[in-house]
Amino acid sequence: MLLTSGAEAITGEPITAWIPAVDRWNAAVWQSEWLTSPRRVRGAPHLRLTVTPGSSGQTTVIAYLYDTDWTGMGSIVTHVAVTLRDAVAGQPYAVDADFPATAYDIPSGHRLSLVIDTVDPLYADKAPRFSSVKFSSPSSSPSYVSLPLK
């Protein structure tokens, strides 16, 4: 479970997470290669993900994009939540979501981490406790993250 909150607005410090400690029972993690030069994210990243809700037919997924340093500490770049309501249990759905626009500089030697989570106290989950969700990337609709890099 990851926590997003108004702490950044209050303290001025970005939300951080130690990526190796992300609970893999409730989340999935993908990471880029280490960057050999600085990169600038300017605009709204886009996520395409195929989600298959469990028995309830409802689920909430939260996607976080982190700037991760060599220690595994990630600073949040942006995040977005998506809820599937009244979906058919066991049927895959292609989800397209735009992250909020951001202006973020990623230093050389860091990498990007995408965390897809199903539990965050900031968002009310529509799925019942202990329900499942499956993420996939079918060849007919591959999953991806598109970044507006400068």
Spell out the blueprint of helices and strands.
Layout: H1 7-11, E1 16-18, E2 27-31, E3 39-43, E4 46-53, E5 59-68, E6 73-84, E7 93-98, E8 102-106, E9 111-117, E10 133-136, E11 144-146
Antiparallel strand pairs: 1-6, 2-9, 3-8, 4-7, 4-10, 4-11, 5-6, 5-9
In short:
By secondary structure, this protein is mainly beta. It contains 1 helix and 11 strands. The strands form 3 sheets. A 5-stranded antiparallel beta sheet has the order 1-6-5-9-2, with no helix packed on it. Strands 4, 7, 10 and 11 form a 4-stranded antiparallel beta sheet that branches.
- In DSSP terms, counting alpha (H) and pi (I) runs of 4 or more, how many helices? 1
User: Within the CATH hierarchy, at the fold level, what is the topology?
Assistant: Jelly Rolls
Output mean pLDDT. 87
Give the total of domains.
Answer: 1
Instruction: Please give the CATH architecture.
Output: Sandwich
Q: In what order do the strands lie side by side in the largest sheet?
A: 1-6-5-9-2
Instruction: Determine the structural class based on helices, strands and strand pairing.
Output: mainly beta
Low-confidence stretches: 1-5
Structure description:
This protein has one helix and eleven strands. With 150 residues, the chain is mostly beta strands. It has a single domain (7-146), classed as Jelly Rolls. It has a five-stranded antiparallel β-sheet with strand order 1-6-5-9-2, with no helix packed on it. The radius of gyration is 15 Å and the shape is globular. Mean pLDDT is 87; it is low at 1-5.
